[in-house]
Design a protein that fits this description.
Number of strands: 2
Structural class: alpha+beta
Helix content: 40-55%
Strand content: 15-25%
Order of helices and strands: HHEEH
Shape: globular
Radius of gyration: 12 Å
């Protein structure tokens, strides 16, 4: 989802694009944890935070196969 977006997304925008219903707090927590792992970048805005992917999708898939 973040990989497909040209612009950073808010947790609310990510929540709306998901195929299954997840609570806002769940989406926000996942994004924070991905940020802690260096997979997404979190930017403070006047209305909250936005997130964008830092690594490419292919790079992530390759890393998961290695694990």
């Amino acid at each position: 989802m973040l990989w497909a977006s040209e612009v950073p997304l808010t947790p609310k925008q990510v929540q709306k694009k998901l195929d299954r219903p997840l609570a806002y707090t769940t989406v926000a927590t996942i994004l924070v944890r991905l940020g802690e792992k260096g997979m997404v970048e979190r930017t403070r805005t006047p209305r909250g935070y936005t997130y964008r992917a830092v690594i490419e999708e292919g790079e992530h898939i390759t890393e998961e196969f290695r694990r």
